[in-house]
Amino acid sequence: MGTWFITGASSGLGAALARAVLDHGDNAAISARNADHVQDLADAYPDTALAVQLDVTDHGQVVAAVNAATDRFGAVDVLVNNAGHGYRAAVEEASVDEVDGLFATNFFGPVELIKQVLPQMRQRRSGTIVNVSSIGAPRSNPASGYYTATKAALEGMSDALNREVAPLGIRVIVVEPGAFRTDFSGRSLMQSRTAIDDYADTAGKRRKENDETHGTQPGDPDRAAQVIIATVEGERAPFRLLLGTDAVRIVRDELRGRIEEIDAWAHVSVTTDFPSEEAHA
Known about the structure:
- This protein is an alpha/beta fold.
- The longest helix is centred in the middle third of the chain and has 29 residues, at 96-124.
- The protein has one domain: Rossmann fold (3-Layer(aba) Sandwich).
- The chain has helices at residues 12-23, 36-44, 59-73, 96-124, 145-165, 221-233, 245-269; strands spanning 3-6, 27-32, 49-53, 78-81, 86-88, 127-132, 170-177, 189-191, 240-243.
- It is built from 7 helices and 9 strands; from the N terminus they run βαβαβαββαβαββαβα.
- 41% of the residues are buried.
- α1 (12-23) packs across α6 (221-233) and α3 packs parallel to α4.
- Strands 3-2-1-4-6-7-9 form a 7-stranded parallel beta sheet, sandwiched between helices. It has a two-stranded parallel sheet with strand order 5-8.
């Protein structure tokens, strides 16, 4: 029996994963900004669940939440950084305070949690950190520039972290979900207060009032939860785990396009080196 610490467990993928982990027989500290929103689930598993109040942007709450989980279960074996929210705005439309809040939740919050659990994981020489990213990291769309920036930052940090902690017996997995039938495009989606008419046909088409994808997404959160558990428990795990047929298609097409661009411009790229010694021989 392992112990999971799951952020953003009150809805969507986080809620599905929390239920699946507890059904699986593991311990779980399940957190939300309002602990009352996860208390019913915790009450259904009184021996293995702990409801924790956690705003990931609050350092004091991060410390207290990890300490509470450790005191109750003895250790955190799997940290899942799932809490976050979407944000739609053309680059020019966004305000500094909105972008600051987005980075505080989607990037700096996960970093704080990682820093709190790593000392115990290093001591045990074991543990898994799962950072929930997005297919928006490898490919952005109009209105998603800032959201993509948070997820690209999360992935870049995770890549370095993975190389730092793998020799210590700790695994890092980045999950890149496609479109799942959650509140991501509904209640959880925020957008700029300002809308500029010149972007009506680009970023404007993806503002909440014009987005018709909510409730029709192909991804099933319950199936995703089972895949995450199986991957964490598996002997081998990828660094990046795509979830959804749309995720596989979109990221594969994006990477193919990048390779084609590299090949098309390689003759220019290679001209920036100093002349080789052989050229002067």
